[in-house]
């Protein structure tokens, strides 16, 4: 058999394989670009062109992370788990491979547009919108045709995907109209209406479930009313920031932080360290609690103190959320799905554990200059170190796990 045909056959053998592989590649490309851009703007690489034309680098970086990196892992995870969550029909290979290919093409064409101009950028965005629409269709098809099962988490994730699609559309309209309103909506929707609701729902469903499988005498505590409170707080935060009332978000942010810290406690944060594959999920979830505490503090300062002192903490809360919670949770879940669905033992080896700890160090390097600006004002290169550490750790993770996606299961089973 032709090697390419064999590889395609393996990639299409399970819903997570194609999206995870593309996500691994895209993570490397995204941070290679961002690190090169940081080096260029710092003057360490003379004459670096930036590859961004008329779009500010920060909005390219945000777009690539929110709409072209995390979604591949989320699609792969949801396409795998949705049918089992709701006792529904499995998603057909044609659908999940179509989503993978169209989204990958859209991302590639977007990159080409950063070099050769806006027509390619718009074509890339249209392809991404199409790929997301097919993904939403596939998820809703499973939900609407499933005879039973608990559909609450599934509905949250499907609804959040619609919110993400609207954010992606808003980014496209921003480039067409140059209206800052569309850009602001895209930023808020991508994080607070899409990524955070999905990851909260996944955490709420999967962390106590996984813990119950490996910890003795474990009691699952998973009240749904707190899930709805957390989701409402996420949406409210996004809405308040969208309408420039962020000084009032501290109430909802503090409530979300309290719910998160409560769940970390009752789900057994301390006990989780006896099983590394569970501990990585708990550590990632704990970052959410810290992020929302920082957001609430920042918002409270906006509400309560003088204009000149309002912006303490800078982007630290955002990076605790996106790198600490989003990236760590995605990598933890992706590692677990990859191991379990390739026939390998559900055990996190020392190599992957060290890489995961490296991601946590990257978070600290990124936020220290903004949390303690007086102490770290003379070391602006910490941002470069944070980006470099994250890139190296992710490249090593991808080098270990990516080949699994185009190879057969080690236990000989299908899928």
From TrEMBL:
**InterPro entries hit by this protein:** NnrS
Q: Where are the transmembrane segments?
A: 20-36, 56-82, 94-114, 120-143, 155-177, 189-211, 223-243, 249-270, 277-303, 315-339, 351-369, 381-399
**Source species, domain of life:** Bacteria
Keywords assigned = Membrane, Transmembrane, Transmembrane helix
**Pfam families noted in UniProt:** NnrS (PF05940)
Q: What's the protein name? A: NnrS family protein
Q: What is the lineage of its organism?
A: Bacteria, Pseudomonadati, Pseudomonadota, Betaproteobacteria, Nitrosomonadales
């Amino acid at each position: 058999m032709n090697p390419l045909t064999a590889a395609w056959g393996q990639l299409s053998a399970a819903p997570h394989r194609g999206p995870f592989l593309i996500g691994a590649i895209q993570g490397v490309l995204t941070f290679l670009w961002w690190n090169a851009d940081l080096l260029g703007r710092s003057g360490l690489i003379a004459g670096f062109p930036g590859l961004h034309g008329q779009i500010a680098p920060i909005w390219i970086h945000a777009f690539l992370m929110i709409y072209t990196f995390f979604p591949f892992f989320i699609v792969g995870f949801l396409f795998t788990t949705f049918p089992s969550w709701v006792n529904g029909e499995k998603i057909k290979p044609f659908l999940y491979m179509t989503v993978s290919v169209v989204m990958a093409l859209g991302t590639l064409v977007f990159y080409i547009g950063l070099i050769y101009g806006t027509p390619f950028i718009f074509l890339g965005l249209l392809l991404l919108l199409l790929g997301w629409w097919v993904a939403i269709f596939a998820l809703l098809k499973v939900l609407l045709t499933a005879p039973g099962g608990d559909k609450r988490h599934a509905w949250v994730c499907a609804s959040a995907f619609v919110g993400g699609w609207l954010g992606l559309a808003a980014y496209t309209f921003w480039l067409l109209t140059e209206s800052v309103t569309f850009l602001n909506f895209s930023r808020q929707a991508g994080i607070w209406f899409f990524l955070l609701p999905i990851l909260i729902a996944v955490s709420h469903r999967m962390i106590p479930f996984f813990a119950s499988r490996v910890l003795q005498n474990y009691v699952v505590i998973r009240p749904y009313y707190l899930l709805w409170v957390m989701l409402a707080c996420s949406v409210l935060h996004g809405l308040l920031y969208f309408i420039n009332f962020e000084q009032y978000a501290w109430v909802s942010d503090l409530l979300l932080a309290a719910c998160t810290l409560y769940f970390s406690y009752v789900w057994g944060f301390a006990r989780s360290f006896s099983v590394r594959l569970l501990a990585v999920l708990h550590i990632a979830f704990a970052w959410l609690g810290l992020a929302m505490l920082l957001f609430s503090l920042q918002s409270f300062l906006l509400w309560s103190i003088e204009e000149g002192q309002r912006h303490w903490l800078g982007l630290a809360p955002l990076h605790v959320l996106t790198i600490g919670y989003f990236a760590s949770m995605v990598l933890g879940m992706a590692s677990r799905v990859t191991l379990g669905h390739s026939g390998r033992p559900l055990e996190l080896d020392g190599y992957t554990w060290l890489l995961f700890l490296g991601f946590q160090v990257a978070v600290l390097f990124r936020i220290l200059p903004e949390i303690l600006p007086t102490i770290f004002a003379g070391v602006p290169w910490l941002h470069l170190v944070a980006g470099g550490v994250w890139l190296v750790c992710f490249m090593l993770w991808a080098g270990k796990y990516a080949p699994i996606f185009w190879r057969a299961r080690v236990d000989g089973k299908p899928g």
